Every structure is written in structure tokens, then in C-alpha cells.
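User:
I would dearly like some help making sense of a protein record. Take your time, and here it is.
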Amino acid sequence: MPVSDVTVVLLAGGQGTRIRALYPDSPKPMVPVAGRPFLHWVTAYFAGHGLRRFVYSTGYRSEQIEEWCSDGSMPGLVREVCREETPLGTGGGLLNCLEKCGPWILAANADSLCLGGIPELLSHTDLQGVAGAIIGVLTDDASRYGTLDFDSAGRLKAFREKVPGQGYVNAGLYLFRTDTLSGFRSDQPSSIERDIIPNLLDQGAAIDVVQLAEAPFIDIGTPDTVVAAESFVLKHEGHFTWSG
């Protein structure tokens, strides 16, 4: 499956309440990092893997992301917004974008970056009978996150509750065959992790886990991580180069 058949859906609907004091008038993905909105770096990372079509699921202060999409700053990419009129969560926000998507969707949060596993994730578009895949990152202490339970073939069985010890945690990067999502309601709040994927598993859908031993990661959900984001981007600047 060529990457032209993959649409990147970036979930940008959150209000960013924990960093509101720093940026009271901006949606979280538009927080400036190294001279550009954080959303620029997220987009550039995926564009560096050959992906060219982007849909941004927006909510709070959507007009700022809409203006950014039309500013011509990322030539060669198709960037468009799908606004939610009421908060829909990660699941509802994704489902709200389906009409703008091609045969496959790569879904990710617009306020975080996990630098690894994209080629392996995209390779699942060539497999028959697979509904999607998810990236899991090995951590020595999974107690803060919960873990991915998968079998010896790497097939996801369930999300597990937070328990101490080593485990693979959800990196928030998902690949879905678009037609497997068509039966879900898009007009009500839902979660990818708590609703969509468990329902797909209950239906017998095959979802594989891309297992990473480690991967650089940042989430700009707190004041401390917003401050750390610039050094993160500059340290890993090789991940954000792409040809328009």
C-alpha cells in the first residue's frame, strides 16, 4: 500500500488546561517551540516518513489551527481541519474525520511526539486480514501508564491496568484500516484506547503491536514539559527534515 493511501489524523481538540496559565489563548498544539508551533514539528516528523495528507481534529480555538493550515509554511503537504462542535474525545475526534480520510489512517496526538516505529507501523498496510496496529514502548516502570497485553505473535489482546514492573506502554500512535471504523458513532464522545480498540478486539479484529525497546518521547501537557520541548526538538532535529 503506497503511503499516499495513508491519511494522518492528528488529534488537536484538547484545551490544555494544565498549561493554560502559560498560554491562555492558544490550543496546546499551537504552543511555540523552537520558533514554530509544536504542531509544525509533529507534522514534519510524519512528513519525513513520506506522508503528505494531514487532517487535524480540532476543538478549542480551532481557528488558530485553521489559519496555520492555510499559511503556506509547509509546501507539498495537504493540511485541512475537521472541527468538532462539542468535545468528542480521542475516539470521537478520530471518527469525525473519517470522510476526509483515505483507505488507511495513522492517528496520533498532536501534543506529543514518539520518535520511532513509523516504518514498522506503516508496513502493516501490506498485510492481509489486519485491521490495524499500535506502537508499544518498553519501559521499566509501567505503573504510571498501564500496559499492552499481546501474544507471542505480537497480536494485541487487551489494555491492562497500571501495575508495577516492566511492560510495553501505549505510545499513542495507531494505524487503522479506515473501513473498520465505519460502524462506530461519530456524534458522541469516546476514547480510542477505552472504546474503539476494545470494541474492535471484541469483534475479532486483528491489531498488531509494534514493539520498541526505546524511543525518544515528549508530551507538552505540563509547564515543565513545555519548557523541555525546545531542547527535545533541537536534540532530535534530524527527525524533522523533509522535502516539500
